[in-house]
Amino acid sequence: MTSAFVARDGSRWMPEYLDSINPAMCIGCGRCFKVCSREVMHPYGMDEAGEMLGVCDGEDDFNGELSRVIMVIDYPGRCIGCGACARVCPKNCQTHVAVDHRAVHGS
Ligand code: SF4
Ligand code: SF4
Questions:
Q1: Fewest CB atoms less than 10 Å from the CB: which of 20, 33, 43, 96?
Q2: Which residues contact 43 (CB under 8 A, 6 or more apart)?
């Protein structure tokens, strides 16, 4: 599958799609969420045992079970590979790939 495109000035543009976020390193700062124009990821709450509690709006403490917040890629197909999220991440915990593996493998 070809994943390179051409920008308006004729230069070659290779998207770098957000592929994963390391949950052990992510501090849930929300910077990537704020700069992404495509709603690819959302902050999720986790309890002390590491179980996901659901999307975290910053106010719900999930009946006191909220232990930490991490960013989760819940809509990977929306990513256009702009790379903005990588530039603002203070933990360098994201992985980007040039090819959209989802499209290649049909998942
Ligand atoms: S690469 Fe761009 S579109 Fe994709 S998740 Fe990051 S900010 Fe959003
Ligand atoms: S910018 Fe990095 S550390 Fe902050 S929420 Fe996004 S992935 Fe996690």
A1: 20
A2: 28, 30, 33, 55, 56, 58, 69, 70, 71, 72
Give the ranges where the chain is alpha helix by DSSP (H): 31-35, 84-88, 101-105
Q: Which CATH architecture has domain 5-105?
A: 2-Layer Sandwich (3.30)
How confident is the model over 57-103, as pLDDT tens digits? 888 899 999 999 999 999 999 999 999 999 999 999 999 999 876 65
Distances (CA, A) of 95 to 6, 36, 86: 23, 15, 8
Q: Is 21 in the pocket of ligand 2 (CB under 6 A)?
A: yes
**Quick check: CB of 85 below 6 Å from ligand 1?**
yes
What is the pLDDT confidence band of residue 107, given thresholds at 50, 70 and 90? very low
Closest ligand 2 atom to Cα of 25 = 3
Sequence ranges of the domains in the chain: 5-105
User: What's the longest Cα–Cα distance across the chain?
Assistant: 54
